[in-house]
Amino acid sequence: MAHTTVPPIPAIIVLLASTSWSAVATPDFSPKLQERQLPKAMRSEMTERPCVTVGRDNADFTGEDNRILQAAVDYVAHLGGGLVEIGEGEYLMHDSLHLRSNVTVRGVKGKTILRKTASSLSALALDGDFGEEQITLVDPNGFAVGCGVAIWDRGAGGFHTTVARIIGRNGNTFAIDRPLMSDCMVHNEAKAATVFPVVSSYDTEGVRIENLVIDGNKEANIPLNGCRGGGIFLYRAFGTVITGCLVRNYNGDGISFQQSNDVTVEDCVSQDNAALGLHPGSGSQRPTIRRCVARRNGTDGLFLCWRVRHGLFEDNLLEDNGQFGISIGHKDSDNLFRRNSSHRNKASGVFLRNESLGMAPHRNRFEDNKIADNGGPEIRIRGEVNDLAFVGNEIHDTREDRSVGILIEENVGPVHLQDNTIEAQQQIEDKRASGRK
């Protein structure tokens, strides 16, 4: 008689359960239809990226000056980009916070303060030659390895000023991390000073700067020009976004970006800086500046430098600045200015600079702006510029010493004026010969 072995009941249950679970729970890891590789990487977008915190205590990185901020930024950058969150408190800046591609730096709104330290100044003891990577100082006090430094002479302003970091020392001679941009000659009053942007971004893509207070400590620092400096400064920093930042008391420009395409500046305040409030320049194409305030700056509120084209400037407030509210000039064509307010600036509310035909700011459009109580003609148009449009603007001069609403000078080409409300001693003063209207 044959015998059949029957497994115990619990073993049968385990076997059936195992078979059923395997059939139901096999995961499908295959790519979904919407998944795409990134444009410059052999992978798709990740939902979780590096994120670190920085603070004076209780953070991933703890410290009180630019070194700890830089360590966090560099760590995240080496992981391919991500977020650095800086806690509230004041951080002393002996050098710029140098930003890296695809890194977001975010502070606590109104409470994360990056404050520049006092500057030191010395004459050069030896000529600094173009391309040289060291300087020799008469007085080295206040200069140290790791500090930011600027070098220039009377003939080396603007982009010829060198801004670098000190990376070594031998007595009165200091090594710097980039070559001198020009000859800086002793007989031409060559100098070095520990001045630099508080936050800077060079040769980057995809940087974000959010919710920082930048304090330039203006009273304790000598000036640095806006081609190489600012509270926030960008150079060839493509696609940068600056949002929710306050830049104050810098001995130079508030926010300056040069040769940087597709920059967005939103919901920022630039005030009480020594020079320009907002300075897009040097070929920066397609900028967007919206809902920003530039007030009580030493010169212009919003200054378009050279070759700023196809920009959008909307819903900004430009008030009580030391020169023009909005200044536009050299090859700054095809921009749109709408719903801005330009009030109580020392000179004109809108100023188009005197440029020849090939260099003039053609085809700019101003619509629905409010321009009032500025120090000169509310709008002054100079140079051989063509095809400007002013549509739906409110232009008022209610001061005791009233001026002109719109001044159009002799060499200006066609200007389209439509539906503007003008209240001034003289609404429009047009100095052009007939046939150029």
Q: Which descriptors would you attach to this protein?
A:
Elongation Factor Tu (Ef-tu), domain 3; mainly beta; 2 helices; 437 residues; single chain
What does this structure look like?
This protein has 437 residues and is mostly beta strands. Among the domains are: 121-193, Elongation Factor Tu (Ef-tu), domain 3, CATH 2.40.30; 299-437, no CATH class. It is built from two helices and 41 strands. The strands form five sheets. The chain has a 13-stranded parallel sheet, with helices on one face. An eleven-stranded parallel sheet has the order 4-7-16-19-22-25-28-31-34-37-40, with no helix packed on it. The longest helix has 16 residues, at 9-24. The chain is globular and about 70 Å long.
Report the major sheet. 13 strands, parallel
Q: Give the low-pLDDT segments.
A: 11-17
Beta-strand portion reads 35-45%
What's the Cα radius of gyration? 28 Å
Structural class by sheet pairing and helices: mainly beta
What characteristic shape results from the CA principal axes? globular
Q: Mean of the pLDDT scores? A: 94
End-to-end Cα distance, whole Å, is: 119 Å
Q: What is the number of E strands?
A: 41
What's the tally of helices?
2
Helical coverage, percent range: under 10%
Widest beta sheet: strand line-up: 2-1-3-6-15-18-21-24-27-30-33-36-39
